[in-house]
TrEMBL record:
This is Uncharacterized protein. It comes from Dyella telluris.
Amino acid sequence: MSLYSYRFPRLAPRHEVVERYMQVDLEAAVAQALRAARAFLAFARRAAEDGALPLALAASMADGARQAVVALQRALAGESVARSPLAMSVLRHCMVDLDTLHELSELLQHHDMTPRNTLHLANAMRDTAEKAVKGLLGVQGMLGEE
C-alpha cells in the first residue's frame, strides 16, 4: 500500500463540530446569568453607597452580562426539550434585563457622568439587577421542578 492510496477517515464538517462544542446546557447558562446579575447587584449597591462607579469594574461587568446573554441565547437555540412557556417568557425578560445592564455599563464607560447622574445610573442598575436576580431565581426553580 502506497502512501498516496491511504484514505483518511471522513471527519464531521467543521460547523457540526463547532455547534456541538458551542451548545450550552440551559441550567448552566441560567446559573451563569444569575452569577452575573448578582455581581451587578452588589456592584450597583456599592456604587449607590459610595457615589462612584469604577470604570474598569464597569467594563468587566458589562462583558460578564453580555457573555451571560450569549450563553442563554445559545442554550435556548440548542434546546430540544419543550420547557414551560412561563419559564421561557421570564427567561427572555431576564435576558433583556442583562442586556440593559450591559448597555448601562457601556453608557458609563463612554460618557462623562456628573455625581448626580452617577447616582441615578447606579440606582437604575440596582433596580434592573434586582429584577434580573428575582426572575432568574424563579426560572431556576421552574427548571428544577421539571
